[in-house]
Amino acid sequence: MSKDNNSLSQLALQKFKKNIWGVLSFWFIVFVGVISIFAYVLAPDNSQNANQMHLTIHSKKPGFNVQMLTIPSQIKNEQSFFSKVFYGVKNTDTEIPITNYKIENNELVYTEYASDGLEGVTKQISLNSFPNQDYKQFITLKTFQFGTDKYGRDYLSRILIGSRISFFIGFIAVFISLIIGIFMGSIAGYFGGKVDAIIMWIINVTWSIPTLLLVIAITLALGKGFWQVFIAVGLTMWVEVARVVRGQVISVKEMQYVTAARALGFNDYRIITRHILPNIMAPVIVISAANFAGAILIESGLSFLGIGAQPPMASWGAMIKDHYNYIILGKPYLALIPGLCIMLLVMAFMLIGNALRDALDVKN
Fold this sequence. Notes:
This is ABC transmembrane type-1 domain-containing protein. The chain is an alpha+beta fold and 364 residues long.
């Protein structure tokens, strides 16, 4: 039996490898996953939420560069390496875009950057503010590869860190939906009768409520925030899993191996978990991939409506909300870049779902 299972798994894997779009989607998802985990390592602005604002250089085009003066803070930053890598640096230094500078009377005299051809304000700071009066290492030429947003933040950094929410909401929401959906669906399908009728009534009532409306209601009940959105999306996606599992359990519970398990005196829990569920996971895996895409779209919609991830947290949906009016102001890329990221990630999950469906289909 184990050899048959291994051979079937190997056959499914071989079929999946032959699907070029499925393989590309898999590696793209892995690529986005690595980026989301190590976003602060890869981001040019590794401050928490990439929230270094420079209003004088707001809404600049990709490739914009400017001299950046960093004034070191006297506050000691006590952070562990783990915290810096996964949660960002608690940056207490002050960054100021400048156009030029010079040294006069043991002071650094600099002119702040001003857009639209205006003359910036000239200020001075004592060289004693810099360690060993070495000011040169605190003046660097900074390039913004994706430009800046309307608050003057590095857009590339916001895109990289924003991938975390869109990526991880899929895992958490699908995990919650699988736990509830598999439990409810397997009980309804296996026991039938009144148990099935009650659970199906709950499923139908939940199914009849528009998903976005239900998510909004749950989010408002739990409060606005990061984890609340994850839980809310997961609590609305379990009905699809439950319906699929229920139908599969009904179709296999009268099979000979289930009847043999009952004859051997195995309890219902063992029959469901050890004999039925392992044999019906193929369609559950496929619908989970679709739910990943659905969760990403729902979260983006919630963030666009302002009830998803809250500022200053980076989110692709919130970035579209902040910049959609720039489409008619000659800077459409501010809304198109996060929109393209959402589209590519959703498409990858849909394509890998189709590839898994074809690979796990024993009729092909």
